[in-house]
Design goal:
Blueprint lengths: L2 H23 L2 H22 L5 H19 L1 H4 L2 H9 L8 H12 L6 H13 L3 H8 L3 H18 L8 H23 L9 H17 L4 H14 L25 H16 L5 H13 L9 H14 L3 H14 L2 H8 L10 H14 L2 H14 L3 H15 L1
Helix pairs in contact: 1-2, 1-3, 1-6, 2-3, 3-5, 6-7, 7-9, 7-10, 8-9, 10-11, 10-12, 11-12, 12-13, 12-14, 13-14, 14-15, 15-16, 16-17, 17-18, 18-19, 18-20, 19-20
C-alpha cells in the first residue's frame, strides 16, 4: 500500500482511534502513544501486505495490545493493567459508540478549565490529528514550545480532573458554546491568520470537518448547523481572497465568479437545517450575514439594510464591540459614512488596539473627504496590523484614498 494511502487512512481513523482508546484506557497520553504505535506498525505492515479489510479494527487491536505490553513494563501503569487488559479482551463490551467517544473527546479538549489556546491546540492534536510541528507553525512558535504547551495542558486536565464526557442536557449549552468557539477559532486561524501566511487552507478544511462532525453527532443543536453554514459561506470566497502575487483582494474587488458555488449551496442547506429547529443563535445570524454577501452577484448589489439589521440583532443576543463595528460598516454603506462614524465613535476606547477598527474608520473618513484624518487612521491600522500580506493591502488602499 502506498504512503498516500496510509496517510488517507490515518486522516480518517486517527480521531476515532484516539477517542476510543482514551475512553478505554482513561488516559490521553497512553491513548496517543498507542495510536502512534499502531500507525507505525500499519505503515510497515501495509506497505508489504496491503491494508486489511477493516483498517480501523486492525489499528484498534494493535493499539490495545501495545497498551497491555506497556502496562506490564511501566510501573506507572502497573496498577491499571487489569483495566487495560479488559479493554483488549472485551472489545465488544457494552459501551457508547465511537461517535460518543469522539464527542466526549471534543468536549474534554474544549473544557472551560483550560485556556483558549490550550483548547485549540488540544483539539487540533487529538481530535483532528494534526502533528505538533504543524500546530506550532499555525501558532508561529517552535515545535518544542508547542510540545511543552500540550504537555502542560494535559497536566492541567489531570490536575483539574477534566471529564471526557458529553454533558447532560442541563449543561450542554454552555459546554457546546466553548466547543463551537474553538472550531471557529481554528477556522479563523486558517482564514485570516494574524501573522505569517494569511490563508491556511488546511486549517479551514479541518475546521469545516469538525463542524460537519458536530452536526452529525448533535443533529438537534441548531448552532452546530449555524456554525457549519457560516464556515461554508465564508470558505466559498477562499479562491478569490488573494491574487496571483499573494496579495489581498478586498471583498468589493473580488471576482465573484470564482467563489465556490458548491460551498454556497452547502451553506444555504446547512442554514436552512439550523433555522428549522427554531432556536436562533449567534452563529446562525452570522451565517445569514455571510449568506447575504454570497447571494449578491456584485458588491454594489449587496443588501446592506438586511445585513445591518442582522448585526443589530446579533448585538442584542451577544453584545460585542466588534459586532457593533460591523454594524457600523454596514450602516456606512447603507446610509453614508456619517452614519457609520456615529456608530464607531463610542467604540474608540474599547477597540483602540484593533486594526480593523482604524481601517474601517479610515475608509469612512476618506469617504467624507477628510483625507488628513483618514491618513492618520490608516497609519494607526498599519501600526497595529501584524500580517505583512494585510499590511500591503492597507498601504495600497491608504495610498488610493488618503494621498
Amino acid at each position: 500500500m502506498s504512503e498516500s494511502g496510509v496517510a488517507e487512512i490515518f486522516g480518517a481513523q486517527w480521531p476515532r482511534l484516539v477517542a476510543t482508546l482514551r475512553a478505554d484506557l482513561g488516559d490521553l497520553d497512553l491513548a496517543e502513544d498507542a495510536a502512534q504505535h499502531a500507525f507505525a506498525a500499519a505503515t510497515e505492515r501495509w506497505h508489504r501486505d496491503g491494508a486489511p479489510d477493516v483498517p480501523g479494527a486492525w489499528l484498534l487491536t494493535v493499539a490495545r495490545r501495545w497498551a497491555i505490553d506497556q502496562a506490564r513494563r511501566d510501573a506507572r501503569w502497573a496498577q491499571r493493567e487489569d483495566a487495560v487488559r479488559a479493554a483488549l479482551e472485551l472489545p465488544q463490551r457494552e459501551r457508547g459508540s465511537i461517535s460518543d467517544d469522539l464527542l466526549a473527546m471534543v468536549f474534554g479538549c474544549c473544557h472551560r478549565a483550560l485556556d483558549e489556546p490550550a483548547r485549540v491546540a488540544l483539539t487540533l492534536r487529538y481530535v483532528v490529528g494534526i502533528p505538533t510541528a504543524s500546530i506550532a507553525r499555525s501558532f508561529l512558535v517552535p515545535e518544542q514550545t508547542m510540545a511543552k504547551r500540550l504537555v502542560r495542558a494535559k497536566q492541567k486536565i489531570a490536575a483539574s480532573r477534566v471529564p471526557f464526557e458529553v454533558p447532560d442536557r442541563a449543561h450542554l449549552a454552555g459546554s457546546l458554546y466553548e466547543v463551537l468557539k474553538v472550531v471557529y477559532v481554528i477556522y479563523t486561524q486558517g482564514h485570516a491568520a494574524p501573522s505569517g501566511e494569511l490563508v491556511r487552507g488546511d486549517l479551514c478544511d479541518e475546521a469545516r470537518w469538525l463542524a460537519a462532525t458536530l452536526c452529525e453527532m448533535l443533529p438537534d443543536e441548531p448552532e452546530t448547523w449555524g456554525l457549519a453554514a457560516l464556515l461554508a459561506y465564508t470558505d466559498a470566497r477562499r479562491p478569490a481572497r488573494l491574487d496571483d502575487a499573494g496579495d489581498v483582494v478586498l471583498l468589493r474587488d473580488q471576482d465573484r465568479s470564482t467563489w465556490d458555488a458548491a460551498s454556497i449551496a452547502e451553506g444555504r442547506r446547512l442554514l436552512g437545517r439550523a433555522l428549522r429547529l427554531r432556536r436562533v443563535g449567534s452563529y446562525q445570524l452570522q451565517a445569514a450575514i455571510a449568506g447575504a454577501h454570497a447571494s449578491s452577484p456584485r458588491f454594489e448589489d449587496t443588501d446592506w439594510s438586511t445585513i445591518r439589521r442582522l448585526y443589530a440583532v446579533l448585538g442584542r443576543i451577544e453584545p460585542s464591540a466588534v459586532v457593533t463595528l460591523n454594524e457600523a460598516v454596514a450602516a456606512s454603506l447603507e446610509e453614508g459614512p456619517e452614519a457609520g462614524l456615529a456608530l464607531l465613535a463610542p467604540l474608540a476606547t474599547d477597540l483602540d488596539g484593533y486594526h480593523y477598527f482604524h481601517l474601517a474608520r479610515a475608509d469612512m473618513l476618506a469617504a467624507t473627504g477628510d483625507r488628513v484624518a483618514a491618513r492618520f487612521a490608516f497609519d494607526r491600522a498599519l501600526a497595529l496590523c501584524e500580517n505583512d500580506t494585510e499590511r500591503r493591502a492597507i498601504a495600497r488602499v491608504a495610498a488610493e484614498k488618503s494621498a
